[in-house]
Amino acid sequence: MKRYRPAILGIAIVMAFAALWHGPLGNAAQRFTAETETIARLNLEYYEMDGQVAVAMERAPLTRRLWLTGRADDFQRSELVRILDGIPAVGDVQWWRPEGGTVRGDPLLPLIVEVELAALAGFGFGMIVAFLVALRRRAIRWSKI
């Protein structure tokens, strides 16, 4: 078990720093939400729907889903979904129904889980590169003998 302790400790540190950056220290989630909602509002303003339709990110938990509310006919609803789904940071666009109901879109991972997975992928890539460098050094050392 002592052999794996540095890797486990590294994984724990990476996950802690990613969570802190996402939340209280870096405010990455808040910046992401503000930027994405601003881009969506600018799109609504461009298509002259800003007074009729409001947009908000799903926040409990924070995901890449945009919720639209307001007055629009069927054509406008489908086109706004298509247009706003083209924003790179958006994974899904849905219209909010006051009466409730289920969302028919794909289930989305919470953003914190996406951040943690990306951080772990970076850590794993670093571990592989470190292993390959150590393997190359060992091969060079053995070739000199």
Question: Short summary of the structure?
Answer:
This protein is 56% helix and 14% strand. It has 145 residues and is of the alpha+beta class. A hairpin with a 2-residue loop joins strand 1 and strand 2.
Task: Please write out the topology.
Elements: H1 5-22, H2 28-46, E1 53-59, E2 62-70, H3 74-84, E3 92-95, H4 111-143
Parallel strand pairs: 2-3
Antiparallel strand pairs: 1-2
Helix pairs in contact: 1-4
Structural class of the secondary structure composition?
alpha+beta
Portion of residues in beta strands equals 5-15%
In DSSP terms, counting alpha (H) and pi (I) runs of 4 or more, how many helices? Answer: 4
The second-level CATH architecture is 2-Layer Sandwich
Q: How would you characterize the largest beta sheet?
A: 3 strands, mixed
Spatial separation of the terminal alpha carbons: 33 Å
Oligomer designation: single chain
* Mean pLDDT value: 88
CATH fold-level label: Histidine-containing Protein, Chain: A
Shape: elongated
Rounded to an integer, what's the Rg over CA atoms? 22 Å
- Topology as H/E string? HHEEHEH
Structure commentary:
The chain crosses the membrane at residues 117-135. Keywords: Membrane, Transmembrane, Transmembrane helix. The structure is a single chain. This protein is an alpha+beta fold and 145 residues long. It has a single domain, classed as Histidine-containing Protein, Chain: A, CATH 3.30.1340. It is built from 4 helices and 3 strands. Strands 1-2-3 form a 3-stranded mixed β-sheet, covered by helices on one side. Helix 3 (74-84) links the parallel strand 2 and strand 3. It is elongated and about 80 Å long. The mean pLDDT is 88.
